[in-house]
Every structure is written in structure tokens, then in C-alpha cells.
């Protein structure tokens, strides 16, 4: 049985005096225990909003969340604020993008780790401090005892993200959601943080949802990948299948727009035309159609369904939402 | 921290020193002067010349300033010519300064005690009735002149309803013992509770009038600061840890919102001293505000000089305390100072 089962998740922003905006338009995906699942897409495709709604972190006011997100048979979307608070940080935890702004600047690191232990594991401050030092040690922060008394501005960017990971994993959650955890970091640090995350979830058996726009991150980390476009999953598959045989023109476009060192000199990058604003709602036709090189009249008129894709299923099951998938393989 | 404090204290001395020079020159450049104020317009040239010489005003201004400085160094700030002729400026200061401090202190306490919680609540319920009501209230608080508010309060609550005394610091018949010059404190120290209570009753209305502007500003800054902090990423992190709302408020929201508020409180003490002049006039409250008003009317140089310098000193001192308190609130400032 899946650890997390997301079905037909929809999030509509309804602000006073504004046209309602659908940020997430029927997302389905599963996360098995211990599995690492990628949510990939460009800015504005709804990946962060999906995560926030699963965590119950979207403000109640102005946001309508429908559908289902079942965590071990508990429907998260209908839990009360109090019940959700009891689970957040204990059963499911989250790591955010910008480590500096995600830590409270006026509170020592130690307290920021211990407060979650005190909250969910009934620890005394003293005991929690010992545990916190141990946690910081485990995420590779040198001299953890001294760090406990330091403030976020005294740590480097990579150390801050390590501290946030320690906080998230403090209560041994079964699901960790990482929302672009390396975007704000230097490239060398990015690799370290990704390696750390991979190691920690493997050792602890924590399932990980990796949210990113960086296909490199996905390639190195994820068992299964969901490609999001316009608030819906357009393609799903194991990472090997997806990278070797991208079937959705959007996935193909994403892979094509990665710069390659072995490309002939002077060859131009091939970006995806347009931007995500060219989005049309999924109500009539495919949202990607305006930007899609393969688009036909059918694409504009008939909304594609998510169906198993035989041609793409090399090693495992593959799902695709496209009328005219890409036939060729990515040139090696 | 110690070096910083010493440096700031030196700054205080320099500020007050420079200000004394400017004030000295400025007061003497005002039209009229103590001689005309004392003798009136019809005095003979001879009597004017005699008084001018007696007060030492016939000497060059830098000689006068030098004399002021040397005497001030030994605690002699001269004799009042207009406010309470014959008393020394220091005596007047000792009588009146505690009164104004007492009044200002109560006013700022009211402003903080109401402004911060209300600002916090308004921000939590942005757009709600409490928010809208308090925004309008704070707008009125800033817009209505202090003396007008003082007048209305006095007329309605003191004169018409008789709930509060109309003027002064203490009922004459009480015969309270004086220790420090702070009447409330004196009452507590000597355990003359009726005197302490009477002094508080005299303070309430002027303090409310005086607190209107600081309250409004503190309320607005608190509200804005809390709204800013609620949008911060680290609040989202705190929420993602499943912390309870009271912990998030206390530990994460309020502490971060306090920095701009503390700054404002420091700056508002300046407005407080300015407002005190008007409020004291309305309530015939014998503080420095009243003495300043009278001092200007009668061109009482020694009293004006001492009172204004002390007010400036208090302002600088309080803002110094505010700067020091930053370090307590924000560790980023602490390390920046410690690194040097």
C-alpha cells in the first residue's frame, strides 16, 4: 500500500476581487514507503503548491483545496488544524528553498532544532539539546555542540540547509518533502546536500518527495518522476525510462534545453517556446498545446487523459497525457 | 559591549555640549530679553543698563558662555529671572523634572501597553473589524492635536463627571512627605498610600492625552512589523514543524517584530517631551513643559538652558538605551559589534 496517495488534488486561489486562479488542476501520484519521487516542472506549474497543500500549510483563507491526499489511510485534507499540527514535523516534514530566510534569525540554532523535539517527542529541553547535537552531527555539521548556541547568520549556506534537514528529520518522519532544497546554494554545495539527502532517506527509510525544476537533481536522486505542467501531471515513469525515452513533448523539451558540454561548438540551445503564461486551462484541450511543436487540432479541442504508454514502458509502468507523443529518442 | 556603551556616552556629552553652545547663542538672539521682560517697556535707560550689567548681559557673548560653562561645571546653572525669580535653575529643575518624567513615563507605558497588543491583534486579523477600527482610531490619535484631546478629556471626565482632578499634581490638603520628587514613588516609599493614589489620579488624564500620538505610532509600526514577519519564510518553517500557535507567536513572530517597534519607542520619547509642554499647560501640571512656556515668555535664560539641555540629554540617553537593546533582541547586531 502506498504511503501517500494523492488523487485529483486541486488548489484554487480565490482572493477577494480577483478572478479565481487554478494553481493545481487535478494532480494524482503515489509515494511508496522509502521511495524517492520527483515532482518536476518549471516555475508556476504547481509543484510547490501541491506540496504546501499536502502539508496543510496553505492559508485557509483564499485557498480552496479539493481532492484527496491520503497518508497511511488518513485523509490529510480534512484533518482539523490541530490534528494536522500534531502530524506536521512528526509524520511528515518539509525542507524549503532558501535556508537563510527559512531559519529564524533571532533564535539560536539549538532551540530551532529542539523545539520540534519538545513538541512531538515529549523531550525536556536538556535532553532535546543532546539529541539536537547528535542530529547536527548526523547531517555533517562539524562541532555541533558549539553550533547549538550560534545563530543562522553565523552558519554558511550549506550548513544552514543541513540544519534545516536535521530539523525536518528530527522526529524520524515517514515522508519528507524537499522543495527545491538546493536552488539557493552554490553548485558544489548542491551536490553535497543532494548526497546527504539521498544517504539520510536511504538509511532511515524515509520517503522523499523531491520538488525541482532541475532534471539533473532528478536524474541523480529519484526512483520515479512526475512531470507537471499547468497544474497537472503530464508524464510519469521511472527515471531511466523517462530520461532515455521522453515521450511527452514537454519532457522532451526540458531535456533538450539542458546545455551539453559535448554539443558541437556554436550549436544553439533549443528552449521551449513561450512561457508558462501561455497556459490554457485543462478544461478544453491540452494546456501545453500553444507551446507544443507536435500540436494538432485535436490537441486544442480534446483534453488528453492520463493513460498507460506502451512505447515508453521499458523497465516499468509509464503513464502519459498526450495525443501526439515524441517518437524519437534523445540523441545520446 | 562596554566599549560601545562608553563611546555612546561620549557622544552624549558631545551632543549636549554642542547643543548648549547653539542654545546659548540662539536664546540671546531672540527679540526682547530678560531685561525688558522684567522691567517692562517704560523702564528708564539707566535702570535697564543697571539690570543688564547685574545679569552680566553686557559682556561679549563668548565671555558669558565661558562663565556659564565654568559655573555649570560646579553645578551652578544660574538664577531664574522669570519663572520663579530668585530660585536657582537647579532648584526649579529638581522640582519640575520629576513631574514631567513621571507623566511621560506613564504616557509611554500606556502607549506601549495598548499599542503593541492591539497592533499584534490587528495584524492577526487583517481586514477584520478590530483591524479597521484600530486603524481609524490610530489615525484620529495622530491627527487630533494633543492640547485639544487634553481639553476634551479634562472637560468631560474631570469637570463634568468629576471622576478625576482637574489640575496639578497633588491635592493641597494631603501634606505628603517628599523624598525623590516623584510623587507616586514618594507615596509608595513613605507608605502614604492615599498620597500615591492621589498622585496617580492626577496623572491619568494628562498621561492619556500625552500618550495619544506615541500610542498611534507604536500601534501602526507593530501592526506593519507583525504583518511583515507573518509573511517570512521562517514562520512557514515553524508551521511545518507543527508547533502550536502560541509558541509560534511568542517565539517566532513577536520577537522578530519588536526591532522596529523598539526603535519607534525611542524616537517617540522626543514627541513625548514636545507634547508635555501642551498637556501640562492644559492641566496646570507643574512640570518642565509649563516652566518652558513661562520661561520663553519671560526670557528666563538660565532656566530655559538647563531644562532644554536636560530634555535633550534624556532623549539621547533613551535612544542610546534603544540601540543597546537591539543587541539583546537581534543577535546579528551583537556579533557585528563583537567582531570589532
From TrEMBL, chain A:
**Pfam families, per this entry?**
ABC_tran (PF00005), oligo_HPY (PF08352)
NCBIfam families registered for this protein in UniProt: oligo_HPY
**What is the designated name of this protein?**
Peptide/nickel transport system ATP-binding protein
Q: Which residues form the ABC transporter domain?
A: 6-255
SUPFAM superfamilies (UniProt xref):
P-loop containing nucleoside triphosphate hydrolases
Q: Which domain of life is it from?
A: Bacteria
Identify the InterPro entries for this entry.
Answer: AAA+_ATPase, ABC_Ni/Peptide_Import, ABC_transporter-like_ATP-bd, ABC_transporter-like_CS, Oligopep_ABC_C, P-loop_NTPase
Amino acid at each position: 500500500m502506498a504511503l501517500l496517495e494523492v488523487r485529483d488534488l486541486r488548489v484554487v486561489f480565490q482572493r477577494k476581487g480577483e478572478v479565481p486562479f487554478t494553481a493545481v488542476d487535478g494532480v494524482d501520484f503515489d509515494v511508496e514507503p522509502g521511495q524517492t519521487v520527483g515532482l518536476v516542472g518549471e516555475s508556476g506549474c504547481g509543484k510547490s503548491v501541491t506540496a504546501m497543500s499536502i502539508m496543510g500549510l496553505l492559508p485557509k483563507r483564499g485557498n480552496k483545496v479539493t481532492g484527496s491526499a491520503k497518508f497511511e489511510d488518513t485523509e490529510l485534507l480534512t484533518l482539523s488544524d490541530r490534528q494536522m499540527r500534531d502530524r506536521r514535523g512528526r509524520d511528515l516534514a518539509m525542507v524549503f528553498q532558501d535556508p537563510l530566510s527559512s531559519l529564524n534569525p533571532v533564535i539560536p540554532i539549538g532551540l530551532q532544532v529542539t523545539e520540534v523535539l519538545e513538541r512531538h517527542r515529549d523531550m525536556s529541553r536538556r535532553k532535546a539539546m543532546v539529541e539536537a547535537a547528535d542530529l547536527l552531527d548526523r547531517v555533517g555539521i562539524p562541532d555541533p555542540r558549539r553550533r547549538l548556541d550560534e545563530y543562522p547568520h553565523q552558519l554558511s549556506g550549506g550548513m544552514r540547509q543541513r540544519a534545516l534537514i536535521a530539523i525536518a528529520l528530527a522526529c524520524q518522519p515517514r515522508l519528507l518533502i524537499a522543495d527545491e532544497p538546493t536552488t539557493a546554494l552554490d553548485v558544489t554545495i548542491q551536490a553535497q546536500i543532494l548526497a546527504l539527502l539521498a544517504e539520510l532517506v536511504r538509511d532511515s527509510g524515509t520517503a522523499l518527495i523531491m520538488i525541482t525544476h532541475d532534471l539533473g537533481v532528478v536524474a541523480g536522486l529519484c526512483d520515479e518522476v512526475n512531470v507537471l505542467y499547468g497544474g497537472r501531471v503530464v508524464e510519469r515513469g521511472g527515471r531511466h525510462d523517462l530520461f532515455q525515452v521522453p515521450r511527452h513533448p514537454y519532457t522532451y523539451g526540458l531535456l533538450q534545453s539542458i546545455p551539453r558540454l559535448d554539443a558541437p561548438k556554436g550549436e544553439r540551445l533549443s528552449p521551449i517556446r513561450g512561457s508558462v503564461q501561455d497556459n490554457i486551462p485543462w478544461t478544453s484541450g491540452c494546456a501545453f498545446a500553444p507551446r507544443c511543436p507536435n500540436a494538432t487540432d485535436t490537441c486544442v479541442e480534446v483534453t488528453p487523459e492520463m493513460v498507460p504508454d506502451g512505447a515508453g514502458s521499458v523497465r516499468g509502468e509509464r503513464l502519459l497525457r498526450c495525443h501526439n507523443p515524441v517518437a524519437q529518442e534523445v540523441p545520446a | 559591549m562596554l566599549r560601545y556603551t562608553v563611546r555612546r556616552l561620549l557622544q552624549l556629552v558631545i551632543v549636549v555640549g554642542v547643543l548648549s553652545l547653539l542654545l546659548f547663542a540662539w536664546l540671546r538672539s531672540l527679540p526682547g530679553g530678560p531685561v525688558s521682560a522684567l522691567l517692562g517697556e517704560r523702564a528708564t535707560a539707566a535702570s535697564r543698563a543697571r539690570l543688564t550689567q547685574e545679569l552680566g548681559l553686557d559682556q561679549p557673548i563668548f565671555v558669558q558662555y565661558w562663565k556659564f560653562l565654568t559655573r555649570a561645571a560646579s553645578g551652578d546653572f544660574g538664577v531664574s529671572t522669570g519663572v520663579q525669580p530668585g530660585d536657582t535653575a537647579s532648584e526649579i529643575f529638581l522640582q519640575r523634572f520629576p513631574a514631567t518624567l513621571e507623566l511621560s513615563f506613564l504616557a509611554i507605558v500606556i502607549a506601549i501597553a495598548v499599542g503593541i497588543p492591539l497592533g499584534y491583534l490587528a495584524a492577526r486579523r487583517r481586514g477584520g473589524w478590530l483591524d479597521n477600527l484600530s486603524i481609524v482610531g490610530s489615525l484620529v490619535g495622530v491627527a487630533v492635536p494633543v492640547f485639544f484631546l487634553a481639553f476634551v478629556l479634562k472637560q468631560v471626565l474631570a469637570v463634568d463627571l468629576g471622576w478625576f482632578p482637574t489640575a496639578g499634581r497633588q491635592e493641597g490638603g494631603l501634606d505628603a512627605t517628599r523624598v525623590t520628587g516623584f510623587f507616586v514613588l514618594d507615596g509608595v516609599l513613605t507608605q502614604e498610600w492615599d498620597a500615591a493614589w492621589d498622585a496617580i489620579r492626577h496623572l491619568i488624564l494628562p498621561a492619556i492625552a500625552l500618550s495619544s500620538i506615541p500610542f498611534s505610532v507604536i500601534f501602526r509600526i507593530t501592526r506593519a512589523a507583525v504583518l511583515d514577519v507573518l509573511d517570512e519564510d521562517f514562520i512557514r518553517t515553524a508551521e511545518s514543524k507543527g508547533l502550536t500557535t502560541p509558541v509560534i507567536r511568542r517565539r517566532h513572530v513577536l520577537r522578530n517584530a519588536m526591532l522596529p517597534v523598539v526603535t519607534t519607542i525611542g524616537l517617540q520619547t522626543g514627541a513625548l517631551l514636545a507634547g508635555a509642554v501642551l498637556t501640562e499647560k492644559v492641566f496646570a501640571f507643574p512640570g518642565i513643559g509649563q516652566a518652558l512656556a513661562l520661561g520663553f515668555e519671560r526670557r528666563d535664560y538660565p532656566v530655559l538652558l538647563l531644562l532644554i539641555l536636560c530634555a535633550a540629554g534624556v532623549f539621547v540617553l533613551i535612544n542610546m538605551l534603544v540601540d543597546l537593546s537591539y543587541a539583546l533582541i537581534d543577535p546579528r547586531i551583537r556579533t557585528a559589534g563583537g567582531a570589532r
